[in-house]
Amino acid sequence: MLNAAALNAMSANVYDFDDTHIPTILHPTAPVAAALFALAESHAMSGEAMLLAFVIGVEVECRIADAVSPEHYQRGWHITSTCGVFGAAAAVAKARGLGEEAIVWALGNASAQTGGLVETLGTMSKSISVGNAARNGLLSALLAEDGFSGPVAPLEGERGFLRVTASKPHWHALTQDLGREWALLKNTYKPYPCGVVLNPVIDACLDLRRDARWSIDDIEEIELTGHPLLRERTDRPGVRTGRESQVSAQHAVAVALSRGKAGLDEFTDAAVADASLRALASRLRFVDN
Questions:
Q1: Could you tell me which residue ranges the MmgE/PrpD N-terminal domain spans (predicted)?
Q2: 188 beta partners
């Protein structure tokens, strides 16, 4: 069951085609849904019960992510992995009908197993921490159900998750309008299988591609103007693998302008090896705005 949760979450994340909670850039479904599907294989539940547990899990992870954003991600924590484990734990706790004390234990057990670094983006390692978020969240709730206790303040404690991973947590984000405002309504889909900050860049390139008054050979330089975060996250020239290309502005711009599309085939090892794309990608420079 635990390995199934991990593999489900890794599979959901590997193509970078996952959903995105816009305020935090968290990808909430992979850790939570993966844990619930694995649980349901051996613990039958109704579709309604699963959906309710899913919504609760997403709400928990997104609110925790809101509380530590944007500093958390800027400090190098991979927010889908670090906050996703709490969402998975909360979802499974709900599905198993845990009481208040056991739910706190589940979150406490999750706090002992959180992790994931932005440094892993563009590598296979990133999917490990996403898989662990589902696996460890599931394990945390099952242990709590069996009486395995945890800290009483895993989130807000003096050395709890929020204070450790953000210097100034937004405490109000945890409970403000709880039950009235739902994080799931701020969740959306990616149109392209790559880092979400590259999606509007690709949109712009595809719009340009539709203009037949120029050709690729006419391009001497590509100037990409955007928020400094765009450069910080996606300035990756000379990528060597399809995984790396998912977070490379150079590759995304080149492939969108050259091929006029940006689907799964455009972010593969074969696409990265295309000499014409590599040549075009080398002409890009960033302008922070």
A1: 2-171
A2: 20
